[in-house]
Amino acid sequence: MSPSLSPGQCPQLCVPCSVSPSLSPGQCPQLCVPISVSRAVSPALCPLLCDVPISVPRAVLGVCAVLSSVSPALCPHLCPQGSVPSSVSPALCPHLCPQGSVPSSVSPSLSPGQCPHPPPVEFADPQPRREFPVGSTVSYSCRLGFSPVPGVSPTISCLQNFTWSSVPRLCQKVQCPSPVIPHGREASPRRASYTFGQQLEFQCEPGFALRGSERVQCLAEGMWRPPVPYCDRVCDPPPKIAGGQHSALGVKQFPYGFEVKYSCAEGLSLIGDESIYCTSQDGDRLAWSGAAPECRLIRCPKPVVERARMTPQTFTFPYGLLLHFSCDEGFRLHGAAQSQCLADGTWGPPLPTCQPVLCPEPRVLYGRLRNPLGGERWYQSNETVTFECLPGYQLPDNARMPLGDAGTATCLPDGSWTPLPKCVKEDDADVCQEVHYIKSTFECGVPVEELKSLLEIQKLFLEIKKLQAELEN
């Protein structure tokens, strides 16, 4: 209070001594702190006193508010809180100032009967207001990451004694659900609960790989972000091979479907499957799809096939080389047309051979081979045979030459014969000869008028032959 005030001069209005902008350094320049005194203290004894004993209207409390710079030695007569100095009469001071305030003469703009600013509440903020008259209420809202305690009202009221109603615990930290990761665990010791802002790191058991982010954080919404990961089974590291390597060098985890390719050092051949895969036979456990291949020095002998052509043309024959074979003209391939160098250094299928093309013994109706060797035989390419007709048959001369009694045929490279001769009856020979002549005439390009005359002559010739045949019968 002002130094000119005596304990009996209690003001009707009070303001917080720490916030009034009109205070001069001599009035209440510092914050007030409550102490208890045993009697009414005059300004002369305690000149820095900034308030009279604080109490409810009935003055049941005996707490004085004094400047923080006042030493208790200046006011040695202290009395326990809850009592009042005996010399102070409630009748003289019916409206004692609340704790931490000064007489209203310092700031007359405030109205009487207000509560001080709402008390602080852990993890909560009050709604912003300037005045707090008796009967008014203030609501608190929880800060980010905190939620209201169930069943507790977030509102307090200004009571008739210018104090606030009791403030319970209003807010608690938001909790996230306890993460459960089969075949995994937290990198740090497991907690009983997980609240807003906490971060977790996860690890998987041997034989499993983490899918997702290894670190998550509890958000204000009560969920983990990024989402909690999971542990997936993985294959063991792929086997190593002597003389070669695989494509997964430096890889630490091998999930389902992972492919590993093998290769050999220069000069060595890869025996087996080039790739293996991480797979599952029972849908649960993971394993590699097969055994790892081997690297070995494999060379097949140079293939020698007489009368054959080989592709590709090469002088080295390592493991896996595939060759294609074809025969020269007049020869036919016996066996597989291609062969591959196998892991045991042999060719498979076995190398083919080129055999001469043979023609079967030709047969002519009403004819026979001249000088047959006897028995059924085969004839080689370009070999020629001669035929003769049986008695009463002749070989017609296609060139209108005198009829002969012999003809030839030649074995071709594809195993067939040149056109075989035909044997006809001797009486039909002249007719056949005329037919062949007419055919050759057509092929020679004779003028149409001349051809017409020739055809008429041929017609007459045939009619005469027909008449002769009828007379003989």
Automatic annotation (TrEMBL):
Gene3D superfamilies registered for this protein in UniProt: 1.20.5.3730, Complement Module, domain 1 (2.10.70.10)
InterPro entries named among the record's database cross-references: Compl-Cell_Adhes-Reg, Sushi/SCR/CCP_sf, Sushi_SCR_CCP_dom
Keywords assigned by UniProt, alphabetized: Disulfide bond, Glycoprotein, Repeat, Signal, Sushi
Superkingdom assignment: Eukaryota
Annotated disulfide bonds: 115-158, 204-231, 235-278, 327-354
Boundaries of every Sushi domain copy: 113-173, 174-233, 234-297, 298-356, 357-425
Methyltransferase as UniProt keyword: no
Statement: the UniProt record of this protein carries the keyword DNA repair: no
Protein known as: CD46 molecule
Source organism: Cyanistes caeruleus
Gene: CD46
